[in-house]
Write a structure and sequence with these properties.
Length: about 260
């Protein structure tokens, strides 16, 4: 009597039973803080229990857990080392934050929204600055692109939906007065020399910039002087002329 108490919940529960279990435990605990280790939602992934448990932890957090106790990849296998602890903590940071966002707690989405805007603007520095683990995010990015560009290595330059959307918006809004097919080939993150190469050849090759793009000139356009158009059947000049002719009537109708 008169002793502070916090209660540990079960660690292995089927996902569909978590909500019921949380509500039951909170009733039985009479308001005492209730925390969980996970719970793990499946038992057949030893070595990955930080993942199987953080799935359950997200649901537990959403349904009212007072605290989440992290689980490492070494759970049920051995004593965790430094990196195991890091992986477990990150997994549970994800679970806790996801639950807070789902609960609509004021301010929890602010960082997500800021990072989304930075990603849409292809502002890599801000992107990494806002990420929970900037060092890992930067390292993974630099494996394929060791400079910051106006596209990433997943889709390459020619198929970057963010870059293409921005290009279309600028063209349709009339902000791009000297619109040209190769304008978007320049990136402010590149050096002057790199921009000159990019403007001349359309797409940088790995020989000019180490590990820069997965879709390079040799893959996309052979030995042509210019990179291939988005269409495999129409020459770049003809495609641009077609685009311009179709957009001019729309632009002329603007007030």
């Amino acid at each position: 009597k008169g002793v502070q108490v916090m209660i540990e919940g079960p660690g292995h529960i089927s996902f569909d039973q978590i909500e019921f279990n949380m509500k039951l435990q909170r009733t039985l605990c009479h308001g005492a803080p209730f925390y969980v280790l996970g719970p793990l939602v499946t038992d057949i992934f030893p070595g990955y229990d930080h993942i199987t448990s953080c799935i359950g932890a997200t649901a537990a957090g959403y349904h009212g857990a007072s605290m989440l106790c992290y689980v490492t990849p070494k759970e049920h296998l051995g004593l965790p080392k430094k990196d195991d602890v890091k992986q477990g903590c990150i997994a549970y940071k994800i679970a806790a934050h996801a639950a807070d966002v789902a609960l609509g707690i004021p301010g929890t989405r602010d960082r997500d929204d800021d990072l989304t805007e930075a990603r849409a603007a292809l502002n890599w520095e801000k992107h990494f600055e806002l990420s929970f683990d900037p060092d890992t995010a930067r390292a993974l990015h630099d494996e394929d692109l060791d400079v910051d560009t106006d596209f990433c290595a997943m889709c390459g330059h020619d198929w970057c939906s963010v870059r293409i959307s921005k290009e279309i918006q600028e063209f349709m809004s009339g902000k791009s007065e000297d619109y040209a097919w190769d304008k978007a080939k320049k990136s402010l993150a590149l050096t002057v020399e790199q921009q000159e190469i990019l403007e001349k050849r359309g797409v940088l090759s790995p020989d000019e910039i180490h590990k820069l793009a997965s879709k390079v000139k040799k893959e996309m356009a052979g030995e042509q002087d210019k990179a291939s158009c988005h269409s495999d059947y129409v020459a770049p000049e003809e495609a641009q002329q077609m685009q311009t002719s179709k957009q001019l009537p729309v632009l002329n109708q603007r007030p």
